[in-house]
Amino acid sequence: MKYAFYSIKFLFYKLKQSFKKIEIIFFIHIFIPNNIKYVMRFLSIGVFLFIHTIYSYAQIYNPKIVYQHLKSTNDYVLQHHILEQYLGFNSDRCGYVKEMKNIITQDKSLDIASAIILLLEARECSQKPQQQELTREKAFQIIRASKEPCFEAFVNSRIALGKASQAAFNSDTDYLSYTKQLLKGQECSQYLYIIPEVNHLIASKHGKTDIALKEILEAEFLYKQHSQFTSFGWVNIQKHLGLIFYQTKNYSAALKHWNQALDAFEKFSIKIRTLVSLHNDVGLAYKNLKDYEKSFYHLTKAIDIAKEIKDSIWIGIPQGNIADILIEQEKYEQAQIYLDNYLDYGLQFQEHGIVVSAY
Description:
Blueprint: H1 2-17, H2 24-31, H3 34-55, H4 63-71, H5 76-87, H6 93-104, H7 111-124, H8 129-144, H9 151-165, H10 177-185, H11 194-205, H12 209-226, H13 232-247, H14 251-265, H15 273-288, H16 292-308, H17 312-328, H18 332-348, H19 352-358
């Protein structure tokens, strides 16, 4: 109710500032009968969402930057995350995999990364089942011959997650059984946390909050016992914990874990979308605690990093969140600037999901 009140006040403010150029949306809201108005709004949003589906890959990835990120770290969980994240920026997923394969396989120091690319090739490039199996096995052979043979357990846990996510929550199939065998058969205690972590992700997907929290706390416990706080696995766990506490409106607890994730991530000196979204999440948590100064700092930080890495979606999103703060504070002139920027970035980079949200 409070946000509706702020929105109405802001609407009147904008109308007062631009009364001479009556906007189409104002016209729709005021002058068109309700039944026609709702149909037009529905159709307008439908058109935007249709275009968004077509152009949702406006993020431009540079294969040389991906390669540099991979070269800058020996954290294989982070390498896996980087390759998966940039895959999501591409509409031609198989094309991305093949391009990165050509770059990575020429560098013998990136043996684990080349294995990850082979696993992505098996998944994304529409191979026949027998060929998929051969490609996966080639990837596993590379990992087994590397300095980190235990990483096979990690990638198998992600394959298991993909299968389990498509199954019923109470399925009798233990998709993690092979991962468990790998962990028992080798000295791989540093990866013991991945079993409860995957169980957490599955429970979260099915809305089982209590189970999800129990599992991720178990993952954190195992991680503290067997792994280093400076690795990306720790960042993942803290991100998951922060999100589950944020969703249950325990914002102070969310901040505790997200700040730990930020502290660990910033030691990698790698700037990717994950760092941007973490700053945005921290900003939102501070916003809900009414600590607007800290919220503004982290949201601005998110914008700055997004601009640096040319991530068009995330240049816009934090600006919409800053506008929301300013509306709460009844600073409508400043809010208008951020809302206009939010909308401009959506239009400029054809991120039409942002355009729908801005309207």
